């Protein structure tokens, strides 16, 4: 991301079901992350990441423990998002320290991440576990603003500017507690996509 420093540029979408395309990732990752601070769009995140287990139906603490020596630890400071852009400074953290923090934290998100290429863009598909299941989100990230995007068919609606789908919100307010209300809202209002980032193209149309 030369020229932009510690800023990330991404767009995020709700996916109704994990697409078959996810199976093309030979090495999906388990991500377990705790939010030790989150307020007004600012957050501090501790993450432990490693190879996804065959049986992910465990508590976050058990998942972290199962990663063992294969885990990677990071600590990230985030700022508020605006127009698909967010300040994000990530630094490495000793995985043992990161794991111990995550295991003791009150607000934790666990998910399996699949990485795929579509055209010239790299996408990730996050299948959330535990109290955030069955939420699936798709994200595309670039080294600069994500404009003139071709949106895959599996994207049901865009939530780049919906703070409820930020991981720090999900850590405090799990999706299972408001999923029915959200689905009713989506049915009533229909899908929407950000129209201020160039021209959206929709796969299959």
UniProtKB/TrEMBL annotation:
PANTHER family: SLR0698 PROTEIN. This is CYTH domain-containing protein. It comes from Mycolicibacterium fluoranthenivorans. It comes from the Bacteria. Gene3D superfamilies: Hypothetical Protein Pfu-838710-001. The active site is at 35 (proton acceptor). Residues 6-172 form the CYTH domain.
């Amino acid at each position: 991301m030369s020229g932009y420093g510690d800023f990330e540029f991404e767009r995020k979408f709700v996916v109704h079901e994990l697409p078959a395309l996810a199976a093309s990732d030979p090495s999906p990752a388990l991500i377990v992350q705790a939010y030790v601070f989150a307020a007004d769009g600012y957050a501090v995140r501790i993450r432990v990441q490693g190879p996804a287990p065959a049986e992910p139906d465990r508590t976050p603490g058990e998942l972290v423990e199962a990663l063992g020596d294969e885990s990677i630890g990071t600590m990230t400071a985030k700022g508020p998002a605006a127009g698909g852009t967010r300040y994000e400074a990530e630094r490495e953290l000793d995985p043992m320290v990161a794991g111990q923090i995550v295991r003791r934290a009150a607000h934790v998100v666990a998910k399996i991440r699949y990485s795929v290429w579509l055209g010239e863009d790299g996408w990730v598909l996050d299948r959330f576990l535990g109290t955030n299941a069955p939420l699936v989100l798709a994200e595309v990230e670039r080294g600069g603003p994500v404009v003139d995007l071709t949106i895959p068919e599996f994207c049901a609606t865009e939530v780049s500017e919906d703070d409820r789908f930020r991981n720090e919100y999900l850590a405090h307010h799990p999706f299972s507690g408001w999923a029915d209300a959200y689905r009713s809202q989506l049915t009533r209002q229909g899908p929407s996509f950000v129209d201020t980032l160039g021209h959206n193209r929709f796969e299959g149309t």
